[in-house]
Amino acid sequence: MELESVSYNIRKEVDGVFFLFDEKLQQKKLEVSMLVHEAVPTCVVGDPGRFRQVLVLTNHNVTGIQPVVEFNIWIVCLNPVVLLHIFIHCLQ
Q1: CA 69, CA 57: separation in Å to the nearest integer?
Q2: Which among 14, 49, 61, 69 is most buried, taking Cβ atoms within 10 Å?
Q3: Bridge partners, residue 4, by sequence
Q4: What residues does each domain of the chain span?
Q5: 0.85 surpassed by pTM
Q6: What is the CA radius of gyration of the chain?
């Protein structure tokens, strides 16, 4: 597997993916939050296609799992590394 290494706007990518799933997430009445911490640079270097793929697959899986009650995506910066943290809370 080859990964790209290009500069891209991480906030735009997150917003774009969640826009695609907004209606489905609302229908499922899921508590959804996204946070791109202010310390995360607007542009990061990495593979935007792979990043989108992770977000899309996570959204797809969450909307198919029952009963998920909370879904959070946090993107934080631990200089110089940007971390993606995904939290899914399911009922027991």
Answers
A1: 18
A2: 14
A3: none
A4: 6-90
A5: no
A6: 14
